[in-house]
Design brief:
Blueprint (H helix, E strand, L loop, with lengths): L4 E6 L3 E7 L2 H6 L7 E3 L2 H10 L4 E5 L1 H11 L4 E4 L6 H12 L16 E7 L5 E6 L13 H5 L1 E7 L6 H16 L3 E5 L3 H18 L2 E5 H8 L3 H8 L5 E5 L5 E5 L2 E5 L13 H14 L4 H15 L11 H7 L3
Parallel strand pairs: 1-5, 1-8, 2-6, 3-7, 8-9, 9-10, 10-11
Antiparallel strand pairs: 2-4, 6-7, 11-12, 12-13
C-alpha cells in the first residue's frame, strides 16, 4: 500500500488563547496551577474577559504534533472537527499553512469551535481551561479511510476518550489502521483522562496500541503506582512506550530495552504549552523514518525544547534545520 503520510493524527481541533498570568490570578479564579479542566461556553467567556492580553493560535494536542511532524519535513495529516465560524476558519488556515493535509467537514449546526484558555505563569507553567465545543462532534463518518490506510503511523489523542462518538471513531480508525498493517500510537493526554477511563484505556492499549506516549503523572495514574514500577509494568502492555519527565528528560522502553534521553538544553523556559505534543512529533517522525529509538527520543527532546522557548504550542523555527544542526 502506498505511503501517503508519515503520521496521520486524530484529535480535538482547538484554538488556543494564551496569556500571561500570576499565581494570584489563578488563585482568585479557583484554578489549579498546571491543570487542565473542562469548562462550558459560559465559563469560557467569563474567564476570557478577565485574562490579560492574549494571543490566539491554533492548537489541540494531536494537531500540534502534526504541525511538528511537518516542521521536521514529514508528510502529515489531521482529522478533527471545527465549526463553520471565525475560529474554525483560523484553525483550518493554520493547519493548511504548516503543510498538513486536512479535509474534515465543519459542523454547520451546533456548538462553536473549541477553544483552550491558557494562563501562563512566570515559571512557564500553563493552566488550561478548555471548552471542547464542536470538537466533540467528531464521529465515525469523519474518519477518512484513505488517510488512515495511507499513513505509516496513526496517532490518537487520549482527550477524545471523553465523547462517546469520538471513541467510536477511534475504534473505526484503529480497525482500518490495523487491517492496513499500519502502526497505532496513543497519547494518554492528561492524568484526569486516565482516571476517568482507566479500564477502557487499558483495554484499548492491550488490543490496539503499538506506541504509547505519557508523562510521569499519566503513567503513574494508569498503573496506580510509582514511576519506576509503572515503567516496569508498561513494558507488558505496549511494544514501545515513551514517557516524558520534564527537565529530567524521557524514558523510552521496548521489551527489555531502556533508553534514557536527556532533556535538550533551553536558555529560558517561557511556556511549556505543547512540549509533550512536540516530543511526540519528533519521536513519531523519527520512527516513521525507521530511526533507532534513542534517536527518536533525541528528536522528541529537540522539538520539545524549541517549543518551550516561546509562547505557543507549535514550532517557530523549522525543526528540520535544528535537527540537521544537531546531526539528526
Amino acid at each position: 500500500m502506498t505511503d501517503l503520510y508519515d503520521v496521520a493524527a486524530i484529535g480535538n481541533a482547538i484554538v488556543d488563547v494564551i496569556a500571561p498570568a500570576t499565581d494570584a490570578f489563578l488563585e482568585a479564579e479557583g484554578l489549579v496551577k498546571g491543570s487542565m479542566q473542562l469548562v462550558d461556553e459560559m465559563q469560557s467567556t467569563k474567564l476570557y474577559k478577565k485574562m490579560a492580553q492574549a494571543i490566539e493560535v491554533s492548537g489541540g494536542s494531536a494537531a500540534n504534533t502534526v504541525a511538528g511532524v511537518a516542521s521536521l519535513g514529514g508528510k502529515s495529516a489531521f482529522l478533527g472537527k471545527v465549526a463553520a465560524d471565525q475560529l474554525g476558519s483560523v484553525f483550518v488556515h493554520d493547519i493548511w499553512a504548516v503543510g498538513a493535509h486536512y479535509q474534515t467537514q465543519p459542523l454547520r449546526v451546533g456548538p462553536s469551535t473549541a477553544r483552550c484558555l491558557i494562563n501562563v505563569t512566570p515559571d512557564g507553567q500553563r493552566t488550561m481551561c478548555t471548552y471542547l465545543g464542536a470538537s466533540t462532534r467528531f464521529a465515525p463518518f469523519d474518519v477518512d479511510q484513505t488517510v488512515i490506510e495511507g499513513a505509516k503511523i496513526v496517532y490518537l489523542e487520549g482527550y477524545l476518550f471523553d465523547p462517546e462518538e469520538a471513541r467510536r471513531a477511534f475504534a473505526k480508525a484503529a480497525g482500518l489502521a490495523r487491517a492496513a498493517g499500519r502502526q497505532i500510537a496513543l497519547t494518554l493526554s492528561d492524568s484526569f483522562v486516565v482516571e476517568r477511563h482507566r479500564g477502557a484505556l487499558m483495554e484499548f492499549i492491550e488490543d490496539q496500541v503499538d506506541i504509547l506516549f505519557a508523562n510521569e503523572a499519566e503513567i503513574t495514574a494508569l498503573f496506580e503506582t510509582d514511576f519506576d514500577a509503572a515503567v516496569k509494568e508498561v513494558r507488558k502492555h505496549a511494544k514501545i512506550a515513551a514517557v516524558t519527565r520534564s527537565e529530567q528528560g524521557s524514558v523510552v522502553v521496548s521489551g527489555r530495552k531502556t533508553h534514557k534521553i536527556a532533556a535538550a538544553p533551553v536558555e529560558k523556559v517561557v511556556d511549556t504549552t505543547g512540549a509533550g505534543d512536540q516530543y511526540a512529533a519528533g519521536f513519531l517522525f523519527g520512527l516513521s523514518q525507521e530511526r533507532p529509538l534513542d534517536e527518536c527520543g533525541r528528536l522528541g527532546a529537540l522539538a520539545a525544547a524549541e517549543v518551550i522557548s516561546h509562547y505557543g504550542p507549535r514550532p517557530q523555527v523549522p525543526l528540520k534545520e535544528l535537527a540537521a544542526a544537531q546531526g539528526l
